[in-house]
Amino acid sequence: MIIASHRSTHGQGRLAGLVLLLSMPAAAPAQQAAEPEPVPITLEEAVATSLAENPGYRIAGATAEIARADARASTARLLPAVEAGAGYARSVDPVFAFGTKLRQERFGETDFAVDALNRPDPITDWTMDVGLRWNLLDPTAWAGRSAARSRADAAGWDERWSGERTVFATRALYFVAVGADAGFEVAEAEEAAARATRDLFRRRGEAGLLTDADVLAAEAELRTAEARRLAAARDRDRAREDLALQLGWEVDRVPVPVDTLGAVRPPPAVVPKPAMPVTRRPDLQALAASREEAAAEARRAGASFLPRIEGFAGWSSHADQAFGVDGSDWTVGVALRWTVFSGLGRFAVRRQAAEAREIARIREADATRTARAQVVQARRDVAASWSGLEATRAAARAAREARHLMRRRFEEGLATPAELLQADARAVQAKGGEVQALVTYNVALARLQLVAPADAYRISEEKP
After folding, report:
1. What's the pLDDT score for residue 25?
2. Burial level of 86, CB count in 10 A (0-12/13-18/19+)?
3. Helix residue spans in 276-344 (DSSP H)
4. Per-residue DSSP letter, 255
5. Residue 379, pLDDT score
6. Residues contacting residue 239 through CB under 8 Å, at least 6 positions apart
7. In what order do the strands lie in the sheet with 81-91?
8. How would residue 266 be classed by pLDDT, with cut points 50, 70 and 90?
9. Could you give the 3-state DSSP secondary structure of residue 12?
């Protein structure tokens, strides 16, 4: 729609015309663009799709897998490492020749000749070897393994919490989309009712029963209703687009909710179990695992001052031909390694680890306190939203009845046109409030399910 002001100058008019001409080529492709494909989807399907396609949840799963792999790798330092190898060498180096003949067990009296020692003939050595090395006692390795396992546990709980938050976000966006659809239907009904009222006023005006002002007032209400319908359509499309992003869909598809909002009876009674604290929630479990990881890192920093004991063993063979064994030898031993002093770096690392452990403890305690407050608030929100829903339902019923009675009074000549228009407006407003209250109640229930896990709170299906 193009609206021109009577105050525009001729220059402004020419400029507006130029802008209109320049905008026409760009508008044509937009009209030819394909509309997104509407895909009907239930709430259960939306949740399943979101868990399978939502980028945030998939990243959390990949992060957890990385942490688990790191935990498995940390065990390698506690197990023996076995290496095998083979080699070939040929040289006239006197030391190499002397040692090779000894290792091949082919050293004889003639090899003691001075010329043979100083200028040996080229000699070939084929070797095979197997070696074993084992950290028999390494406190830092055990502490590192404990830290890696706690880190993997934290990542696993984070993944679970991410899944629960993904489910909550999907349910909330689905409820908003359903409410937007219902709001659009209400707006359409409002427009239809406003049009019927306008037509009625026109007929009454043509019959001389109403003034032009009354007809214009009805016309204004109709235009207002049309504007509300357009706004409701925009809100509906935006809600569907938000849901599509949550589902991980491209822009060529748009979800169309097919389920309706519930709340046909009061909210379930939520009874806390003292034996099941709120710390069983995945996010708090993740913080507890992070605290344990920080404690293990602190132990590893302290263990760096202790000695390590390493065991080693090896077997090797030497021959002048490939795959032969002219001579072999083996070695077995134990070594103690102790870094007595390496500057003051280890003291700083130990201090950092101690502070990190304290930070992790504070975070867990603060999150636990916040979680308890969230549960109380969520329960209060459910109760309040239910009360608000009951109030809006009663208001909607009363407004509908009032509009029905007012229309009868108007037809009987006992009510003015302004009173009828006001009754229509109140009925529409009350219906919209009921839809919004229904969305608020369902979202509040979904949030309660998120912050109060089922293993910590028993949810009764009985009416209170």
Report:
1. 44
2. exposed
3. 282-303
4. E
5. 86
6. 173, 176, 177, 179, 180
7. 81-91, 123-137, 308-319, 327-337
8. low
9. helix
